[in-house]
């Protein structure tokens, strides 16, 4: 039995839970790693940002392949939107990691 119409989008909505949970686990591991070993923050920060940016893009790329546009203009528009989305994800991850690092640095400061 084939699913037609917009009912198949329910499956894509449910599939978006996976990257959301994965991104949450990435930052939970980052916070845990920096709390245990603060000098490894630089290395862990890079991995966390890359994991955040790539985690959400797999679902978008799968949808682009599943519903392949027929024209070159549609592909160019998709690539432009995907690039902007990746840029926004990098900025979000950078701000999130920076704020967590400032919080952890304040928590382990000598005044406490």
What portion of the residues fall into strands of 2 or more residues?
Answer: under 5%
Distance N terminus to C terminus? 63 Å
What general form does the structure show?
A: elongated
Task: Tell me the domain tally.
Answer: 1
Overall pLDDT, averaged?
76
Largest sheet: none
Describe this entry's structure for a reader.
The longest helix has 36 residues, at 72-107. It is built from four helices and no strands. It has 112 residues and is mostly helical. The protein is 80% helix and 0% strand. The chain is elongated and about 60 Å long. The N and C termini lie far apart (63 Å). The chain has one domain (16-106).
Please specify the SSE layout and strand pairing.
Elements (H helix, E strand, L loop, with lengths): L7 H8 L1 H20 L4 H26 L5 H36 L5
């Amino acid at each position: 039995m084939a699913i037609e119409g917009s009912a198949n989008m329910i499956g894509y909505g449910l599939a978006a839970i996976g990257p959301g949970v994965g991104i949450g686990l990435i930052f939970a591991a980052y916070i845990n790693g920096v709390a245990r070993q603060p000098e490894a923050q630089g290395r862990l920060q890079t991995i966390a940002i890359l994991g955040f940016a790539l985690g959400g893009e797999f679902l978008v790329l799968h949808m682009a392949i599943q519903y392949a546009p027929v024209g070159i203009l549609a592909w160019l528009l998709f690539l432009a939107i995907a690039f902007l989305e990746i840029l926004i994800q990098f900025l979000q991850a950078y701000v999130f990691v920076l704020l967590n690092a400032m919080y952890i640095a304040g928590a382990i400061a000598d005044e406490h």
